[in-house]
Amino acid sequence: MLNYKKLKNSCYRSQNKCISKAIYNFSECNNLTLITLTFKENITDVKIANQQFNLFIKRLKYLYQSDLKYLKVYEYQKRGAIHFQIIFDKYISSKIIRKCWNYGIINSLSINNKYIDFIKYFVYRYITKPLIKEETQKVYDLNIKSYQFSYNCKNPKVKVGVNYE
Length: 165
Known about the structure:
By secondary structure, the protein is of the alpha+beta class. Helices cover 42% and strands 18% of the residues. It has helices at residues 4-26, 46-64, 94-100, 116-132, 139-142, and strands at 32-37, 70-76, 82-88, 106-111, 147-149. A five-stranded antiparallel sheet has the order 4-1-3-2-5, with helices on both faces. Strand 2 (70-76) and strand 3 (82-88) form a beta hairpin. It starts with a helix and ends in a 16-residue tail after the last strand.
């Protein structure tokens, strides 16, 4: 039996850490790109979806030849298929994204200014959603994070016990 109180507390802690890390890594970026990647097929297995996402990132890094920072969040569509919401630290053209994502439809939005509020909104909307929805109450989904940062995203530095006089 699931302990929903523990799960909820864990979700809040994860959400707060994710927000801090997202703001730390993306708030100084002038050209963010938000993309949605969907699948033509009705892919409902997170493992399979993540494998295809990892191939997408490999292709993107090869074509773009840059050290991209990103935050990826998965969620379920109404039909049950998984799709990804990703925020990148720089502008990536739709043409390049289409070359790299062969599995379905993409939507792309470029954000041209420093929008900390947008980053907070993105994280709140997509990090808390998967654990609240009924279809994600699968044991596997509850044991994995609904989000993933790229390896080059850094954790914010937290100062403990500093006197601010």
